[in-house]
Input
Amino acid sequence: MAENNGIQDQNFKEILQKTHDSTVQIHAEISRIIADLRPTQLDTLGLVAAIRQHIYSNVASRGINVHFDLDNVERQLLPEEELSIFRWAQGAVGNIIQHAQAENVEVSLKQREEKLILTISDDGKGFEIDRLTEMREKGRGYGLLNMKERMILIGGSCSVQTQPGEGTTVTAELPLFGRELVKK
Ligand SMILES: Nc1ncnc2c1ncn2[C@@H]1O[C@H](COP(=O)(O)OP(=O)(O)OP(=O)(O)O)[C@@H](O)[C@H]1O
Ligand SMILES: [Mg+2]
Output
């Protein structure tokens, strides 16, 4: 710590160092807690625009072409459903950035009478889906599992279509039976 260079008292120096270390740790912890909470864009922009913005600033900003085809969501979703779908999309985006080496990404959100379908496709390197179990034994490959669990918890589903060299498509579906129309 540069700030305590001029201090002679060893005891005081140690206390100062410890205080500094715990402040850094608390800051990291608070940042993590805030990141786990509901992202403010969900409330300020709504689900569709929040997804668009997240993908725009994380994928398009890296020079990857992004094509959006997003329906308006006209059926009322619960706040936790919106959060799960947003987190799901973040998981897909994270994988594209980390693994895909894609040039193009397509994001489609379709609202049908009875379900919502969100698809995120990339034209990157793809992977062997059969090797996921093997990866999990080595402590990796939990991102896709979390994405799937998130969707199942809200009564939806998640599927992955991929092959080495063939890009990757992840799809989330949420049934919309009996949902109220969104009030304008
Ligand atoms: N879009 C993608 N393009 C290419 N490979 C992918 C893509 N998504 C996932 N993968 C492959 O599938 C593996 C499993 O992905 P998953 O998200 O489950 O775990 P991870 O990304 O390795 O770890 P974590 O998500 O926990 O950081 C990845 O390690 C990667 O090899
Ligand atoms: Mg991942």
